[in-house]
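can u do me a favor
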């Protein structure tokens, strides 16, 4: 159940069942510290807020730009807007660790386990591959392609804007081939199948090949 309340002059949307807080705070004091503003406006302790900041659920709008913010003692200007998206269940999630397969400095290649997001959301990014890679290599990380959370597989991560642009173009121009393996229940009734259907109004062609069938399951290769 959600309820909107006024606390110390701040409008807060709270879910008492799971401790979810979605809140906008407008700073009124020049050089106020981010952690102090958050502590004054919420019922959360500074220890909890420090963890929340590190896990990426706090955003700062200063001028026209809005960015994720992690710096606990970041000084704020009057009029800066702070957005808190605190979800206790999401923030308590523990991600599986990705495996580094190749490091070329400007980009790296990783095995993403199932359950790990490709990128974060407004509710946090500590379970996202990009953030896990940033912390592992101490470098900026840029997403150049995606895998669904439930899918495990190999992903490339760029570490410079130049590499991100070039790799994204290679994927967009289909100069990098992607191959998926899928296990489906039952016997696939053909050795080869081509599906040509638009996805989000974009052309999408998939070639499916039966690799093996055993124990009433089919192993498929999808390109």
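np, heres the sequence
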């Amino acid at each position: 159940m959600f309820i909107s309340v006024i606390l110390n002059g701040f409008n807060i949307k709270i879910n008492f069942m799971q401790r979810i807080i979605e809140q906008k705070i407008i700073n009124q004091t020049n050089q106020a510290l981010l952690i102090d503003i958050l502590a004054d406006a919420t019922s959360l302790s500074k220890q909890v807020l420090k963890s929340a900041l590190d896990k990426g659920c706090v955003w700062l709008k200063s001028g026209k730009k809005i960015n994720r913010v992690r710096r606990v003692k970041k000084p704020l200007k009057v009029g800066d807007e702070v957005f808190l998206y605190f979800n206790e269940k999401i923030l308590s999630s523990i991600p599986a660790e990705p495996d580094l397969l190749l490091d070329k400095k400007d980009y790296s290649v990783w095995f993403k386990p199932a359950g790990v997001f490709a990128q974060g959301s407004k509710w946090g990014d500590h379970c996202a591959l990009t953030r896990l890679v940033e912390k592992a290599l101490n470098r900026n990380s840029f997403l150049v392609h995606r895998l669904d959370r439930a899918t495990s597989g190999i992903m490339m991560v760029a570490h410079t804007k130049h590499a991100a642009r070039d790799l994204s173009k290679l994927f967009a121009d289909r100069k990098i081939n992607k191959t998926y393996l899928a296990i489906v229940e039952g016997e696939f009734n053909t050795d080869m199948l081509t599906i040509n259907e638009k996805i989000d109004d974009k052309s999408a062609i998939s070639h499916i090949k039966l690799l093996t069938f055993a124990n009433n399951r089919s192993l498929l290769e999808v390109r």
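The chain has three domains: 2-91, 99-172, 180-222. hope that helps!!
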